Amino acid sequence: LHDALPIYHNYAHYYFNYLSYSLLSVLILGMAALMLVFNNSDIKRRNASAPLSANSFNLQFIFAILLFTVSAWLIMITFCLLINFKNSLNVNTVYFIINSFVFAVCGAGISYLIGNLVKSRNAIPAVSNVLTLGLCFISGVFVPVELLGSSVLKIASFTPTYWFVKANNQIAQLAQFDIASVEPIFSSMLIQLGFALAFFTAALVVNKKRRFQN
């Protein structure tokens, strides 16, 4: 399937699929380390004494997380465009970039949740490796989807990485850009955004629970 694609589509296809591993790893490692600092009891007491509501603090923190996410995403997208600039000037690349941004937002939600759950700095690399490698292996990043069993794909469908890779596979094959052709791609993106909302909601619940416990 991949060999039938033009060379520039092949490159972008592989690059953006593997982006799910590198981007998610960076986000988890960076976010979890940041959350450990902010969850320090002394810092939490200082923040609690500030004239700022918990909702306002959480909202500002989420914006900071998204800023970090966009910065990491932009760096990786820039590398892709610089390395393959001549072949990147097409509509397919635009869809690849949009899909990767949606996945980055979802990755921010995953990282925020993990940051609220991890309590040890030494546990961060282990959690990052297990989660990112596991998601990539069952979702078609390292192993083509065609070689994965139906049971594995059913499990993978409950992860955002699966829908990110599925959208990339559809974008790589895209030759027409009418509504019927792009609708499945946007459906996969919407599912990723649903995962992102669920992760952020779960992270806020865990954060609130930890705040009352302390």
Could you name the key traits of this structure?
214 residues, mainly alpha, elongated
Q: Can you offer a commentary on this structure?
A:
The chain is mostly helical and 214 residues long. The protein contains eight helices and no strands. Helix 4 packs parallel to helix 8. It is elongated, with a radius of gyration of 19 Å. The relative contact order is 0.16. The mean pLDDT is 84.
Number of helices: 8
Helix share of residues?
A: over 70%
Radius of gyration, taken over Cα atoms and rounded to an integer in Å:
19 Å
First and last CA, distance: 54 Å
Counted beta strands: 0
In sequence order, what are the helices and strands, one letter per element? HHHHHHHH
Question: Which regions contain 5 or more consecutive residues with pLDDT less than 50?
Answer: none
